[in-house]
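Ex. 9. Protein: BRWD1 protein.
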Amino acid sequence: MKPKVTMIAWNQNDNYVVTAVNNHLLKVWNSCTGQLLHDLVGHEDEVFVLETHPFDSRIMLSAGHDGNIFIWDITKGTKTKHYFNMIEGQGHGAVFDCKFSPDGQHFACTDSHGHLLIFGFGCSRPYEKIPDQMFFHTDYRPLIRDSNNYVLDEQTQQAPHLMPPPFLVDVDGNPHPTKYQRLVPGRENCADEHLIPQLGYVATSDGEVVEQVIGQQTVDQDEQGLEPSILDGMIRQLQLEQDQRNGADQESASSGPQNGEGTPRRG
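Predicted structure tokens for BRWD1 protein:
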């Protein structure tokens, strides 16, 4: 097999360069002389993640498709910590990316199974209030483009960044309780009735019909016993915002300086 470099990284003070090769070895080089200093052995598949510590020039993190995460002392050529990303019932999960926190006390990784792995010092209590499975109900919604080639959500015909805050659901699309919905930015202070999503039946790619979140249920529809419609809610919200803007424009026009004939002066 012809060796190929898959990733390269400089350490924090630029004295060393670490290269990942497709024969699963990491090589540590002197950046000034080009001398090979160490071969780091441990990975069993290709490595595409090399992350240097933010302030400790000795430390380098590597992670690969074999599910292994290593923390190396590159000055000595030794491993200081090792973690294997084993997923129960599914084998290992390939690690696709890693990043250190600015203080160097934590690092986070993402894997091929959609997991976010957080490592570090201190207490894990702040993370215990978070459910194991967290997705937004809009994560896999199809997009379309309008006549100006702008992206729109296919279901609501609205720009994604203008849509209401999404709901948190599990991997099967089932909504989490209201206490979790308040973790979504924009829903922190919502009343309980605004945290109850509208459920509907959606066909999956393999033909199975499952119940999933499709939008927000409005209070008016609940009281009238009508079938909830996310589009109706969107239209009402857009109309309300437009009325508020028009009212503000009329108020500013009427309060501006006027000439003797009662016509507003041009700015």
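Check your answer against this statement. Residues 230-254 form the longest helix (25 residues).
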